């Protein structure tokens, strides 16, 4: 195996800006080596998310040994959560390194920056987290695949759960930026009850005492929130300290395996929406979770699982075409079949290359080994398709 | 509504004493040593990381806190000796550049040492839970403890600054540095002391918020700007100014976030009020600063007029 992992020094970022943008020719794929570029956020406050995704992908590569039955070369780059830098590095991967696949990123704004530079050259882009609505609908692309979800879906899961519980008075809270607003709209898409209060906090806010006081004063039926990363860690800890745990805590991207090591007991019993949880009972999931625990001594989250599936997806498709990467149409068709065993169980692609999968209500719990994980409470949506697929002309 | 007001006043007081602990050191370093220290927020972060480490090692928050204090003092002395001391004779721009560089170096260093994931410090058992206030409202005991600890430190500083020989030198240094030096006081030693004291207070602030907030790189930068506002409002070099400035900034910030939209709702339609309130709330602190600087350019308790 010639798996070579190289992290480009950030000085390359400066050099790369002088490279000609958007070389239009198809990358040569006849060198007999499967080249995959990973673009993840590996530094800064959100580094934990990108690291999980990278680790999940590399776990699959190490388990499969030769991805697609070919010698494999993986190039890992850090987008530093900066769209301009990510676009440059994506161009480098495509034009200089001539990769066959680009896998990543975590954030939707990074996806927006690398989508065109990668897909316009015929290189396949597989997003393992960001699932922007525009690329699911009118701007869907034959070279773009998503192994995660469409961004609205986890929020819709929580809305549907609140609706099912018959809540009439839900307090909504999200950071004041586009994804925060999308989140609350996603929730309202499947929730028709009343809203006790709607608060947009500053992005990066760490002390929620003022908002928690309002929740305590309103005494809503439930709280729905979207607080990714460090914000979520703080909110969860302060929520339990304020004695509010009698009010159901519904969330998306707030209580997961990237934040649980920091929130620990404070998150127990808090709920979220997800397409998978580490406790799912199937052979593929067992291989994944046990392998991840053994390799990294941590419980994997959805970021890792979705990247793991991207590696499996590439493996299945490259094997199906017998390692012939030059016939892109055949490769795309093989990818679209998604013939691999996902840890999440049922998985297939819709016509827009976004997943059709089940969604669950999950709850934070303590494992027997003392670590924390999310566990499935109940299935909310079966074979759920996103709301934008019908607008996709493919 | 009254309940919410009381709760938010408590929240304001808690944020206020925290800002005071950080601002006290910053205002002394700025006022006495004439050094602009952008890395002051880093000390706050180091305090949080130190207690996270020591609490994990000893298994006790209190032992962690006890070990953190001398470690923080050492960190302060080392930074003063290595980075700050060569900057005394340099311009403010050089100081800003050097201390900003320090921020980046320490942030990256912390990532290498402790990793990128946020750490967590367990709440001390003794202060866990919340006490009922009025009706369904509860308030976390730990936040009350923070208010008490902050007030105790403020009282201690008051005694030291106003009733001891060192305090006299500090006050003299803040009003006229050259004169203190001309009178034969070892200004180098005084500066080391001031910086170490400031570092200790900032680390202490970081340590006591660690159980509420996640311990994260970059947590220092988020408080640094508010702290500078406090120092400017209170008057550079004035501990009393830092105390009142911190409480003022914190209470205005906390109350503004909650009651801004509520007040606006009485004069405009709800949707517009919500939108405007969200925009205005984060600005309130800076508007307050502008108004105070307009009336008193040297700050509330500022002494230097140069």
Biggest sheet of chain A: strands, sense, closure?
Answer: 8 strands, mixed
Which parts of chain A are unreliable, with pLDDT below 50 for 5 consecutive residues or more? 1-29
- State mean pLDDT of chain A (0 to 100 scale): 89
What fold name stands as the CATH topology of the largest domain in chain A?
A: Rossmann fold
The CATH architecture of chain B can be given as Orthogonal Bundle
In terms of structural class, how would the helical and strand content of chain B be classed?
mainly alpha
Principal-axis shape of chain A: globular
Q: Architecture of the largest domain in chain A, according to CATH?
A: 3-Layer(aba) Sandwich
- CATH classification class of the largest domain in chain A: Alpha Beta
Total domain count of chain B: 1
The CATH homologous superfamily name of the largest domain in chain A equals Response regulator
Most extensive interface between two protein chains, with residue counts: A-B, 35 and 39 residues
Query: Biggest sheet of chain B, open or closed, and with what strands and sense?
Result: 2 strands, antiparallel
* Count, helices of chain B: 11
Whole-number total of structural domains of chain A: 2
Secondary structure tally: strands of chain A: 13
Q: Return the average pLDDT of chain B rounded to an integer.
A: 88
In short:
The complex is a heterodimer of chains A (394) and B (306). By secondary structure, chain A is α/β, with parallel strands linked by helices.
Description:
The complex is a heterodimer of chains A (394) and B (306). Chain A is an alpha/beta fold and 394 residues long. Chain A folds into two domains: 11-149 and 281-353, 3-Layer(aba) Sandwich (Rossmann fold); 153-274 and 360-390, Response regulator (Rossmann fold, 3-Layer(aba) Sandwich). Chain A is built from 13 helices and 13 strands. Chain A has helices at 11-16, 47-64, 83-96, 108-119, 133-136, 153-164, 178-189, 209-218, 230-241, 260-263, 283-296, 302-320, 328-337, and strands spanning 34-40, 72-78, 101-103, 124-127, 144-146, 169-175, 194-201, 222-225, 249-251, 271-274, 348-349, 355-366, 372-384. In chain A, helix 2 packs across helix 11 and helix 2 (47-64) packs parallel to helix 12. The longest helix of chain A has 19 residues, at 302-320. Chain B is globular, with a radius of gyration of 20 Å. In chain B, helix 1 runs parallel beside helix 5 (141-163), helix 1 (2-33) runs antiparallel to helix 10 and helix 9 packs across helix 10. Chain B has one domain: ABC transporter involved in vitamin B12 uptake, BtuC. In chain B, strands 1-2 form a two-stranded antiparallel sheet. Classes of the chains: A alpha/beta (394), B mainly alpha (306). Chain A binds chain B through residues 43, 45, 47-48, 51, 176, 198, 200, 202, 204, 206-207, 209-211, 213-214, 216-217, 219, 230, 233-234, 237-238, 241-244, 258-259, 261-264, and chain B through 3-4, 7-8, 11, 14-15, 111, 116-120, 122-123, 129-130, 136-140, 142-143, 211-214, 216-219, 222, 254, 257-258, 274, 278, 282.
């Amino acid at each position: 195996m010639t798996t070579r992992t190289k992290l480009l020094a950030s000085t390359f970022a400066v050099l790369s800006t002088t490279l000609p943008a958007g070389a239009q020719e198809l990358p040569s794929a006849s060198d007999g080596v499967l080249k995959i570029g990973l673009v993840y956020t590996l530094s800064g406050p959100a580094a934990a998310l990108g690291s999980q995704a990278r680790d999940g992908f590399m776990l699959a590569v190490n388990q499969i040994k030769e991805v697609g039955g070919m010698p494999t070369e993986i190039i890992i780059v850090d987008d530093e959560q900066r769209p301009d830098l990510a676009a440059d590095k994506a161009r480098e991967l495509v034009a200089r390194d001539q990769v066959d696949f680009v896998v990543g990123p975590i954030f939707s704004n990074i996806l927006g920056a690398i989508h065109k530079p990668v897909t316009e050259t015929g290189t396949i882009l597989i997003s393992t987290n960001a699932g922007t609505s525009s690329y699911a609908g009118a701007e869907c692309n034959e070279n773009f695949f998503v192994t995660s979800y469409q961004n609205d879906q986890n929020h819709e899961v929580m809305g549907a759960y609140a609706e099912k519980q018959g809540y009439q008075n839900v307090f909504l809270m999200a950071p004041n930026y586009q994804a925060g607003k999308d989140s609350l709209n996603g929730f309202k898409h499947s929730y028709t009850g009343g809203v006790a209060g709607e608060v947009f906090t500053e992005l990066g806010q760490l002390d929620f005492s003022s908002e928690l006081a309002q929740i305590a004063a309103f005494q809503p039926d439930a709280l729905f929130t979207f607080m990714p990363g460090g914000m979520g860690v703080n909110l969860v800890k302060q929520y339990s300290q304020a004695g509010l745990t009698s009010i159901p805590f519904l969330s998306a991207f707030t209580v997961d395996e990237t934040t649980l090591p920091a929130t620990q007991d404070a998150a127990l019993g808090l709920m979220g929406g997800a397409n998978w949880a580490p406790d799912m009972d199937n052979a593929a999931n067992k291989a994944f979770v046990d392998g991840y625990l053994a390799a990294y001594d941590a419980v994997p989250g959805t970021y890792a699982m979705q990247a793991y599936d991207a590696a499996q997806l590439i493996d299945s498709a490259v094997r199906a075409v017998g390692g012939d990467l030059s016939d892109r149409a055949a490769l795309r068709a093989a990818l679209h079949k998604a013939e691999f065993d996902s840890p999440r169980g049922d998985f297939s692609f819709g016509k827009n290359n976004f997943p059709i999968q089940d969604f669950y209500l999950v709850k934070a719990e303590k494992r027997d080994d003392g670590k924390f994980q999310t566990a499935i409470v109940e299935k909310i949506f079966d074979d759920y398709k996103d709301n934008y697929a019908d607008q996709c002309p493919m | 509504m009254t309940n919410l007001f009381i709760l938010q006043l408590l929240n304001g007081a808690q944020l206020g004493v925290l800002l005071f602990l950080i601002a006290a050191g910053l205002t002394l370093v700025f006022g006495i040593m004439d050094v602009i220290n952008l890395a002051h927020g880093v000390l706050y972060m180091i305090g949080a990381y130190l207690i996270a480490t020591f609490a994990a090692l000893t298994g006790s928050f209190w032992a962690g806190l006890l070990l953190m204090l001398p470690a923080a003092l050492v960190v302060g002395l080392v930074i003063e000796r290595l980075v700050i001391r060569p900057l005394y004779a340099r311009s403010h721009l050089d100081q800003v550049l050097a201390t900003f560089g320090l921020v980046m170096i320490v942030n990256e260093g912390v990532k290498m040492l402790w990793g990128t994931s946020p750490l967590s410090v367990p709440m001390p058992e003794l202060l866990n839970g919340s006490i009922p206030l009025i009706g369904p409202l509860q308030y976390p005991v730990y936040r009350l403890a923070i208010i008490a600890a902050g007030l105790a430190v403020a009282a201690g500083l008051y005694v030291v600054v106003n009733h001891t020989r060192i305090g006299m030198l500090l006050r003299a240094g803040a009003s006229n540095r050259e004169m203190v030096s001309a009178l034969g006081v070892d200004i180098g030693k005084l500066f080391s002391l001031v910086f170490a004291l400031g570092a200790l207070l900032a680390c202490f602030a970081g340590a006591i918020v660690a159980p509420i907030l996640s311990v994260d790189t970059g947590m220092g930068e988020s408080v640094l700007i508010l702290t500078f506002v406090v120092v400017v409002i209170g008057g550079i070099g004035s501990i009393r100014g830092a105390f009142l400035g911190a409480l003022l900034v914190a209470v205005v910030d906390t109350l503004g976030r909650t009651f801004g939209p509520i007040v606006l709702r009485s004069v405009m339609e709800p949707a517009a009020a919500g939108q405007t309130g969200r925009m205005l709330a984060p600005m309130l602190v800076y508007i307050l600063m502008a108004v105070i600087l307009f009336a008193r350019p040297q700050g509330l308790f500022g002494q230097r007029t140069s």
